[in-house]
């Protein structure tokens, strides 16, 4: 009998779930087509009778997209995944799959600005009530759960303040309340910052993981994508909604993303180690008021980080002394790191939070999200670490 393979993440991200001898291309070709020929009308009849093994139309399924979805599911070690045109398409389609008018969502009070604005400006019009909880008091979350609660939505680490939620504790609280109130709640985490290299929230009992694959999964700042991971039952519900909303992936993006996955672990591990070294160096710099990084023992959630993460991730957030004026001077004086939005690429990117992820928020909302004027998010790339350290040091030297 063949020994059962139990491959780890680096192997799964290259081979997906298909091992052993078989014919065909080594690299999945791009099926750049919107639709598929039927051999004859028996195919159309099969499809009409509910057999979804037939290829019909790329918004429903496409071999290139399916191949990347299988690799993604293999990385997460879960039943299935579904690819979207962007992280926001993944998030909004998932939310609308499980919450309807009259329902309630409990969300972490510190979220990616785009998600927060969608909750604030759109869901209220759909009569979906969003209430917020803090990661510093998860017991309070238990008290907030009601019969109307359909979704618990959170991030860990958060964007850009890198605070953490103790995932195990959150899940325990939710499951206890579910039993008490005889309800079913869908727990959703945005794992864009953590990535499956550093943590697997599904293993800790979270129902659904969403990620902006534009970031570490894509990793080269050349594509937009979103992905949802979960069990087959939940993913098939989301798949149905995605056919209506149409935010589905396209074959070329799926090809690029599939290609990026081959180096996923390599890239994230290098980002992890560069980020930790940079965080340690910046902590000693007098021009820097604060360095936030989950694997620095000065981080308030350091114990949680060590418990649930393998490494601290590729993002370091700093607060430079002198507020937003010095933040501008600092990012404009960098030579290697690029002043650009987004994160998770091979190149180091910096962005001033109040001018990027957290625009259009009131002072009160910024305060609630922990975002300040001097805050600069650094997405640490895979460059040589000494070059990066020299670049950051020379730029900080220019600040008064
Ligand atoms: C944590 C997080 N979630 C979701 C998104 C949205 O992803 P996308 O830009 O791919 O739609 C972003 C984008 O920056 C993000 O940082």
What does this structure look like?
- The chain has 400 residues and is α/β, with parallel strands linked by helices.
- It folds into 2 domains: 9-261, Aspartate Aminotransferase, domain 2 (3-Layer(aba) Sandwich); 264-397, Aspartate Aminotransferase, domain 1, CATH 3.90.1150.
- Helices cover 40% and strands 15% of the residues.
- The chain is built from 15 helices and 12 strands.
- It has a 7-stranded mixed β-sheet, with helices on both faces. It has a 5-stranded mixed β-sheet with strand order 8-9-12-11-10.
- Helix 1 runs antiparallel to helix 3 (63-76), helix 3 packs parallel to helix 10 and helix 6 runs parallel beside helix 7.
- The mean pLDDT is 96.
- It binds pyridoxal-5'-phosphate.
- Pyridoxal-5'-phosphate (PLP) binds at residues 86-88, 112, 114, 155, 159, 190, 192-193, 212, 214, 224, 226, 342.
- Pyridoxal-5'-phosphate binds next to helix 4.
